[in-house]
């Protein structure tokens, strides 16, 4: 509304233009990027197929086609909502059901294509704009800062990529923004009344409901509830006050509402450990810090897998300096009511994710989706810095700050525009190179792709089904013992085979496995026969 009523002002015109471009970039080429491993499991959860169910039908050594793979990714009228809940409980108990329930109904309403399933996240991502404006207003009561934050988020390659992904994180972003805004509102309402009136109770009950919804979208919502609690305790000087008591009761209500899925999680805890075993992988500490710094930079500029370039290093260093100064500037120029929550949102995920990875090992912090609360707080800090410099008439070097804003906005815009034309992105992680794998296989005549259940093969094979030519055949194996190559294929490929399976094949007379392609997550071999 403010953009419309102030449309004659060049600043508001610019913000509106950036917002329109950001919305356009969210919807363009929704089906261009690879439908990657994790999105495949979104479809499998929605359709209601248990892992054992579809793997037993596909990984049985028979020669199958692309359509055989995709059968399990499409709606089956015989599968109900109960099947979806059952799959989540048994196969992925660490993924609460709300997002999957909503997308299931979305899919029934609008169709079964990649565009449709991704469009739910895209539409949800549009609610980020009013939500983040409201959050900034509750913090600063300044429309300029809110509008600059909208501009930063609108053209951010990070938020655009997650807005185009069939996962729960766009929806989660909206809810955590509303939750933070409502917390600030509840605190202010409580501070303005001596007695606990119905209005106060209503505010805190809504806050409870928002946190419960957030938990039913993602377990990572603890990274919102914990910093909110720490913030309130600090704000009240570590005293037991109306606000700390009401927030404590509110969080308790949220947890009680979430108990049904907590029970599911506890009952299937072993499956959770198996599903998240990848987080225990140990890599050098400097590598963790490097990727964490890189992910912060990706809020503003799209830096893909390659990091070993001078330009990328400079971008990361400059961004970290700017972020550090923005946080310092925020603390120096606002009250704890403002900077306290922002700082808690930044520090808590770092303490709970990055530090454990550095101390005991693991790669939890390398998944930037878990750091969304931290990144939102960083965006708001940057927006406060830039907005303050623009509206302060005494600010020296205002032209320099205007140039900095122009660089950030144009850099994000160009990055996102380039990203929109690519068939993969750094967020696709373990499936990043599958388009290249598909190109290699599609160039050959009469190809057969063989794979076992090693590593991420199950999801990646499903993902490849959207990229391979219809004439490509597949043979998926659950047991590779005494395996013999089938006749009638000119080119035979192996996708990320176990070393045992590959060496077993090479022992057969006249066979040799030639390396074709690899990245850190997958490899492709061709059998010379």
Secondary structure layout:
Blueprint: H1 2-5, H2 10-27, H3 37-47, H4 51-58, E1 63-64, H5 66-70, H6 81-91, H7 98-110, H8 114-126, H9 128-140, H10 143-154, H11 157-163, H12 169-191, H13 198-217, H14 222-235, H15 242-267, H16 269-275, H17 285-297, H18 310-333, H19 336-359, H20 372-391, H21 398-419, H22 434-442, E2 447-452, H23 457-464, E3 473-477, E4 491-495, H24 499-506, E5 512-518, E6 523-528
Parallel strand pairs: 2-3, 2-4
Antiparallel strand pairs: 1-3, 4-6, 5-6
Helix pairs in contact: 2-10, 2-21, 3-6, 3-7, 3-23, 8-11, 8-12, 9-10, 9-12, 10-20, 12-13, 13-15, 14-15, 14-19, 17-18, 17-19, 18-20, 19-20
Task: Tell me about this structure.
The protein is mainly α and 529 residues long. It folds into 2 domains: 2-29 and 124-427, no CATH class; 433-528. The chain is 63% helix and 6% strand. The chain is built from 24 helices and 6 strands. The chain has helices at residues 2-5, 10-27, 37-47, 51-58, 66-70, 81-91, 98-110, 114-126, 128-140, 143-154, 157-163, 169-191, 198-217, 222-235, 242-267, 269-275, 285-297, 310-333, 336-359, 372-391, 398-419, 434-442, 457-464, 499-506; strands at residues 63-64, 447-452, 473-477, 491-495, 512-518, 523-528. It has a 6-stranded mixed sheet with strand order 1-3-2-4-6-5, sandwiched between helices. Helix 14 (222-235) packs across helix 19 (336-359). It is globular. The N and C termini lie far apart (68 Å). The mean pLDDT is 94.
């Amino acid at each position: 509304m403010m953009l419309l009523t102030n449309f004659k002002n060049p600043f508001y015109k610019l913000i509106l233009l950036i917002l329109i471009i950001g919305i356009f970039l969210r919807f363009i080429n929704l089906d261009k990027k690879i439908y990657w491993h994790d999105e495949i499991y979104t479809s499998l959860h929605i359709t209601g197929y248990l892992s054992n169910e579809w793997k037993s039908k596909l990984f049985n050594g028979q020669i199958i086609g692309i359509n055989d793979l995709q059968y399990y990714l499409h709606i089956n009228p015989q599968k109900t909502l109960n099947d979806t809940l059952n799959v989540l409980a048994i196969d992925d108990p660490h993924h609460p059901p709300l997002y999957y329930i909503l997308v299931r109904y979305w899919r029934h309403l609008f169709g079964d294509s990649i565009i449709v399933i991704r469009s739910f996240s895209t539409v949800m991502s549009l609610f980020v704009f009013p939500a983040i404006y409201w959050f900034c207003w509750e913090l600063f009561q300044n429309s300029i800062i809110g509008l600059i934050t909208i501009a930063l988020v609108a053209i951010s390659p990070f938020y655009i990529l997650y807005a185009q992904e069939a996962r729960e994180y766009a929806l989660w972003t909206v809810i955590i923004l509303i939750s933070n805004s409502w917390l600030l509102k509840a605190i202010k309402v409580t501070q303005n009344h001596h007695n606990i009136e119905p209005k106060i109770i209503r505010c805190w009950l809504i806050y409870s409901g928002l946190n419960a919804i957030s938990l039913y979208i993602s377990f990572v919502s603890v990274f919102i509830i914990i910093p909110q609690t720490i913030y309130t305790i600090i704000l009240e000087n570590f005293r037991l006050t109306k606000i700390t008591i009401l927030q404590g009761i509110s969080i308790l209500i949220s947890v009680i509402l979430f108990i049904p899925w907590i029970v599911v999680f506890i009952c299937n805890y072993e499956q959770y450990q198996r599903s998240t075993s990848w987080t225990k992988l140990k890599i050098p500490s400097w590598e963790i810090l490097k990727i964490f710094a890189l992910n912060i930079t990706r809020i503003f500029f799209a830096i893909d897998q390659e990091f070993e370039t001078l330009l990328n290093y400079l971008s990361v260093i400059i961004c970290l300096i700017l972020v550090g100064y923005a946080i310092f500037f925020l603390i120096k120029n606002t009250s704890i009511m403002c900077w306290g929550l922002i700082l808690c949102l930044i520090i808590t995920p770092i303490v709970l994710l990055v530090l454990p990875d550095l101390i005991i090992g693991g790669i939890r912090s390398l998944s930037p989706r878990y750091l969304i609360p931290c990144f939102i707080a960083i965006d708001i800090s940057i927006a406060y810095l830039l907005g303050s410099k623009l509206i302060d008439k005494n600010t020296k070097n205002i032209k320099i700050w205007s140039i900095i804003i122009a660089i950030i906005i144009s850099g994000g815009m160009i990055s996102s525009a380039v990203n929109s034309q690519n068939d993969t992105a750094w967020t696709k992680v373990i499936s990043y190179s599958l388009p290249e794998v598909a190109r290699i296989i599609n160039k050959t005549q009469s190809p057969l792709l063989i794979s076992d259940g090693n590593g991420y093969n199950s999801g990646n094979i499903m993902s490849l089904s959207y990229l391979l030519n219809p004439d490509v055949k597949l043979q998926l194996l659950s047991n590779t013992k005494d395996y013999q190559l089938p006749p009638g294929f000119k080119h035979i490929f192996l996708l990320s085979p176990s070393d045992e399976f590959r060496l077993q094949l090479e022992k057969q007379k006249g066979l040799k496995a030639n390396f074709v392609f690899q990245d850190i997550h997958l490899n492709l071999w061709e059998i010379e026969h």
